[in-house]
Structures
1.
Amino acid sequence: MTSDGGIKIPSRLPLLLSHEGVLLPGSTVRFSVDSPRNMQLVSQRLLRGTSLKSTIIGVIPNTRDPEHDTDDLPTLHKIGTAGIAVQVVGSNWPKPHYSLLITGLCRFRVSSLLKERPFVLAEVEQLDKLDQYTTPATEGAAAEDEELGELSKKFYQAAVQLLGMLDMSVPVVAKFRRLLDSLPRETLPDVVASMIRTSNKEKLQVLDAVSLEERFKKALPMLTKQIEGLKLLQKTRKMNPDNEKRVLSVRKGGVFPGRQFNLDGEDEEEDGDDAVALEKKVHGANMPDAALRVCLKELKRLKKMPQSMPEYALTRNYLDLMVELPWSKSTKDCLDIRAARTLLDNDHYAMDKLKRRVLEYLAVRQLKTSLKGPILCFVGPPGVGKTSVGRSIARTLGREFHRIALGGVCDQSDIRGHRRTYVGSMPGRIINGLKTVGVNNPVFLLDEVDKLGKSLQGDPAAALLEVLDPEQNHSFTDHYLNVAFDLSQVLFIATANTTATIPPALLDRMEVLQVPGYTQEERVEIAHRHLIPNQLEQHGLTPQQLHIPQETTQDIISRYTREAGVRSLERKIGAICRAVAVKVAEGHRVTKTEDLIPESPTQQGGKTLSSLSLCVIIRAGTFKHKYNQNTMANIETIKYCIQYIVKIVDQVTVLILPPAIYTSTYNGRVIREFLQMTRLIAVLKVCSVAGEKEGRQGSSQGSADSAYQTVRHSSVISQTS
């Protein structure tokens, strides 16, 4: 590699085909390798080589390596850069690939290709001198002619002018200054072009400039463009003396010796003006003076901090959170008591005590505007609607709603946040909730406050003492923010199943409202007002396809849902709706009996449903007996009877069996009862056909009811006989 003419590169070089960036002599660039030939180059040459010569490769820019090894090579760029691989990093996720850190040495020209597989090997001709980077700047100056010396001097002055406009406290700028004083001037075009943000097309022009004079002519306009951009930026910031100096942002990518400057107009707006935009947001957040002083102090530190430092991201995240918090943003309460009473009555049945407390709060707010938010605690069994009442209260007041689940929380940092000295620190759930809703007077629902845990990380119930104390929460201090935030306008509603597990100090800070379970009459009303319409909508059914009488609802409640709330009742109604949905889906067909009736088809989902579709309701308790009520008939017999009914009546849309069929152990009685059920369905069907044929919409139901009573009476007579 050495000769009388200086240091030489090998005459045969393996070539790395790249289309991502341009490697210039004197710069260091990281390349991603995932194509077949480049992967073979790394695995067979760089990883297996043991000498310095094996680490020297050629980088051909503006050339994409084919995705398959069998594809032909594209036309190679004639000028490339010889470089030394200083780092090789491999990974298998999401697919096998390598990352190469290559430092450029000199230019070369491709003379001929020696082989294309497994990687490209070519005969090259060296165009630059390798020893120019080690020669002092004073040597070789006499060899320059007058025109080249003038260009070199002008380029050096422009580079010095650019450095004078930059902030020397940034380590990259200081290093650039040392390189400018130590490197020979013939290397400056390559070094400067690699450090300032330019397009690959402009870098290719510098790479293709073999003569030093042409290289200066290509690089000087790029340097002048950056200077003009900084002058324009300083002119627009002349009113603010703090921004007279340009703090260069740093990006990962083509770097020498460490980072690359960001100086073009587009990135100035993204990164350079970022600090100015953040400062405007800080002043426009209307935060208290104490929080404003902390933000300005952190912002001043951020301006002097390079983006490469890990603390830069932490400080930036902190300032973004401080700006996004609703220090002075609030929603206007809806204080119309009549409208609030109507809305609460429409959303919930019963719960008079809770509704009265909300109306009292609205009445006091009308008389006094500066009222602190109450701390309410709804205590009651599961399923009585404590959480849904909280949502209704937020909708009644016209406020934002946020739910915080406290069940199983055993770390006090979940409430008060983590200190910023820890890695991965974040604010607590209270501050995160305020950031989510965007106002400082929402309705916070602290769900399952009686199920808080306790561990070595602290007691979250003790952390809630400050949050739920009206005398202290006006200056709540989160560990992450480290400044006070006013929570006095927040309406806190806690829910619990029992007060036995709530610490006495925490229970003393809340106004406890007992929510008892519902009576049977209330559950029936809730089912027909809210649960049944909701389940019909969720299952795509209409009231004409499914009708559940109140007697059936009462039997479901008394026999199958022995609970204080209505969750099991809603699940049972959902099971009925699913069974009906199956029948409706199977009943989308036209039968011969429909020809007897004038059709009035309705389009639903692209299918035509005939008006003959009949909704049959078998009331609960029809087949009860006083004998052997603790035994059930044979299951196979019941299945057989059901199949027999389906064979006889093929157009029944809905078939609801009684909740409980108590029979004797004799199969004969079971068959007799199902035959009576079959006669009932047949009579109902005939009455429905007759009613539609005569054009009387309401008579079919009346006929069906009379037929039901007739069959019911005959059933009793037959049993008695």
2.
Amino acid sequence: MNQDKLICSRNTEIITDTLESLGFVLNREKSVLKPCQQILFFGFILDSVEFKVYLTERKIQKILLKAKILLSEGVVVIRDLASFIGLIVNAFYAVFEAKLHFRDLERNKIKGLEGSMDFDKKVQLSDSSILELKWWHNNVETKHGKLIRPMPVHVICRTDASFLGYGGIDLSSEMHTNGRWTSEAINYLELLAIFYALQALYYDVNNTHIEIQSDNTTAVSYISEFGGMASSDMDVLAKSIWMWCIERNIHLSATHIPGKSNTADYYSRNFSSSTEWMLKMDIFERICLHFFRPDINLFASRLNKRVNKFVSWFPEPGASFTDAFSVSWQNMSPYVFPPFNIVGKVINKIIQDKVDECIIIFPFWCAQSWFTMILENMCSFPATKTPGPIDISPQQRGTSFREEASTHRSNSIREALQGRGLSGELADFIIKSWSTGTRKQYQHAWRHWGIWNDIRCSSAFQTSETVVLTYLFYLHKSGKSYSVINTHKAMLLCTLPFFGNSWCKNTDFIPRFMRSVFISKPPKPRYIAMWDVSIVLRFLESLGKNSDLSLKILTFKTVALVSLAIAPRAQTLISLCLNNMIVEKDAIVFMISDILKTTAHGDSFSVRIEHFRNESLCAMHTLLDYIEATKKVRLSNSLFISYVTFKKVTTSTIARWLKLTLSLAGIDTAVFKAHSFRGAATSAAFNRGCSLKPILKTANWKSDKNFRKFYYRQCLRKQDISFSNALFTL
């Protein structure tokens, strides 16, 4: 190599003549003897100008084609997957990030082989494998071009981990960081110590080469190799470290040093606890409810922060700044819980930076010089806590909610009923008149009501219509929706009578108030339009034969098809039982014996899953295949069971399966939730000509009011045909 082309040619001639004179035979056809700046070598392009290695266009197109084919199939032949992994491994020389995006594919391959060497078997691509395929498909054309030699080392950082915490030190500036944590496997902790040290010491550094020195060979290996196969947790962490560095154009290298030479060891075992104090989260939330929600926590750490954005004392991973006194507080609304010996300095900083609002925790030391400054500058009356425990007897319980703030609503009602002479068993029986879901919803509202009264120093049990109206109006001014306010209203009107508030039975102002809330903030429907059922159906059809599917995928497909076929609630799906199943020639019928949300006195309810001519989309056929596949492993007579534990599942599990199916089909699950299956199925049936009568019967609706108001929506399509095309097309 030489910058002068003529000199490079002369050097080439000297080398060739020397080799031939020594008896070597040169293959001149395969040799490049004319000086050039790019050369094709072993299928790669070496560029001496940019000093990088590039993929050839042929290799790029081959990767793109194979990635596209694998993504379109979903269930792939392991041999094809292994072939694609081979292409990726070969691309390591030319794509810097390549090692970050192949291990999930490799794990998918190993899991599919199941210890055999049958590469002609098929395997379902995992979600993580699909993400890696998409990365290659979207980035290989722009990400290839790897430096032949990385930039020289600019910074050296030593890190160490113990079961107590982590430590890190920058050798050039001698700046250090450390912190506590809970125990994990030591290898994982050593790798996590590297990440924390990088985040704390180099959060504002870009375009550099950092060398990590660690006394743990496993951590060094996971950095050097961009991850590893032995531990998936460490692989994910190593990937996070590298992505953090790549975003900042930081090149990372790692070397091993003996433990006795690791100066970071001291910091991983010695900590200062003088600043590690904090308020309990429930007390902090009550303070925020009383004043305002701060946007930053000053004088905090990773462990004791009460706001996601925080300023630390020393370099700390995740901290926005270090040393709160070194930055301006003018545009902040901070939460401050400083050491008491610097309260005066904090007050001066607040006044100096003209902070509009601030929550500060300080001792009630009226003799201190800073106490008068607080009184002169406070914009709200302080919330105080008197010393000593608060002692409230059961007879005084109606006067304060301090102890009852965390008490369960049902317990309070039970005590009230027992106070009237009812037995505990009878009280529990009456409480069961509310469904489990309603009790959970009301408990959340009850807790908010209690905290609000606690702040006002008023009773949550013996109250008045005026106080309830004031509370509801407070919720309205806080931006709560009509449905949230209505839940709180319903909870209060059905709960307060148990504590002697007879006015709840005859109130005129609360309904009038709710009408005003409705007018000023009318409830909005969750969905303006509905997803296209045909998209999900095409996805389910593309999965292939039921006999070729894993139990997990077969479960997803079955739940989705049954949900489309009978438009149920998740509650209905978990109520389907094999003991109540009747198989007919063209349908499967389930008798529902459980009490559902729509069950009325004297009602009998059944669901009918009918046969469809296309077996790949037939809910009845798929359901029978699912029952057969789970027959030998199921531990419950409930229709749908977990594909892991083989026991009955809950409504939340059913909802998660449906949401995951929507996501795999390409539906935006940030917008559409699992319950949207009910609206999508009934809307699609109506739009395709089905009359209302069978729709109402299938969904178990008494009238079309609920359907039209809450469920019927037009299909959301990427391209709607024009009015003219719709009208004049034959």
